[in-house]
Specification:
With 252 residues, this protein is of the alpha+beta class. The protein has 5 helices and 13 strands. The chain has one domain: CNF1/YfiH-like putative cysteine hydrolases (4-Layer Sandwich). Helices cover 20% and strands 23% of the residues. Strand 10 and strand 11 form a beta hairpin. The mean pLDDT is 96.
Length: 252
């Protein structure tokens, strides 16, 4: 049953603060303004988390209408991998963790609840992309694959880092740190040891270092706290049964 109290609420989102060209539109939804209930309250946009499909459909409709999104977003079946697809229509969500668009009206979309969403555009405003960069995707090369698929010189790209889990809440083991250091020794500064003999990982620092290595020098955003900001964000580490936010980018 849909939540009748949500009828008057409008979907909420964060708009990137970055010097993108005028024709670029982007946002990350927050968790308020939808109709989902319980663990998914209220603007859950994911169908795979065992929420009521009717509620998810209504939440998606609300976001599309409120944000004046020009077409159905290209929803992905995210697998914490590194595949990149073009944001064209699909009858079944493709298994991929990033999408790119080169034409107006194609809406690149990823869903997160702690993992890092990274949005891209070029300085001319004719190419955009969205990447799902959890630690597996980061260490596997999802950002490198996304930059390569955009086919734009890295120094002509802008990147925005959206809401993700903060370093004090993101504990990982030696094996995760070792994979990052094997990929790039400069990642060492993104890990702080804790009293349990494990590591607090900084997803934002890891993404910035990877983008620097790729030659993407104009990087914005970061500083969100998905785990502790319970009012605005879903967080899988805080509560495993939870909803998902969506990060979207398109060319008007």
């Amino acid at each position: 049953m849909l939540n009748p109290l949500a009828a008057a609420q409008a979907p909420a989102w964060v708009t990137p603060q970055w010097p993108a060209p005028a024709g670029i539109r982007a946002l990350t939804t927050l968790r308020s303004g939808g109709v989902s209930q319980g663990d998914f309250a209220s603007l859950n946009l994911a169908l795979h988390v065992q929420d009521d499909p009717l509620a998810v459909a209504e939440n998606r409709r609300r976001v599309i209408e409120a944000a004046n999104i020009p077409a159905e977003p290209v929803w992905l079946n995210q697998v914490h991998g590194t595949d990149v697809i073009e944001a064209t229509s699909h009858t079944v969500p493709p298994s991929a963790d990033a999408s790119v668009a080169h034409r107006a009206g194609q809406v690149c979309t990823i869903m997160t609840a702690d993992c890092l969403p990274v949005l891209f555009c070029d300085e001319a405003g004719v190419h955009v992309a969205a990447a799902h960069a959890g630690w597996r995707g980061l260490v596997g090369g999802v950002l490198a694959n996304t930059v390569a698929t955009l086919q734009v010189a890295p120094d002509r790209l802008l990147a925005w880092l959206g809401p993700a889990i903060e370093q004090p809440a993101f504990e990982v083991g030696d094996e995760v740190r070792a994979q990052f250091l094997a990929r790039n020794p400069q990642s060492e500064s993104a890990f702080l040891s804790n009293a349990r003999g494990r590591w607090q990982a900084d997803l934002y620092a890891l993404a910035r270092e990877e983008l620097r290595r790729l030659g993407v020098i104009r990087v914005y955003g970061g500083g969100f706290r998905c785990f502790s900001d319970t009012e605005r964000f879903f967080s899988f580490r805080r509560q495993s049964r939870t909803g998902r936010m969506a990060s979207m980018i398109w060319i008007d």
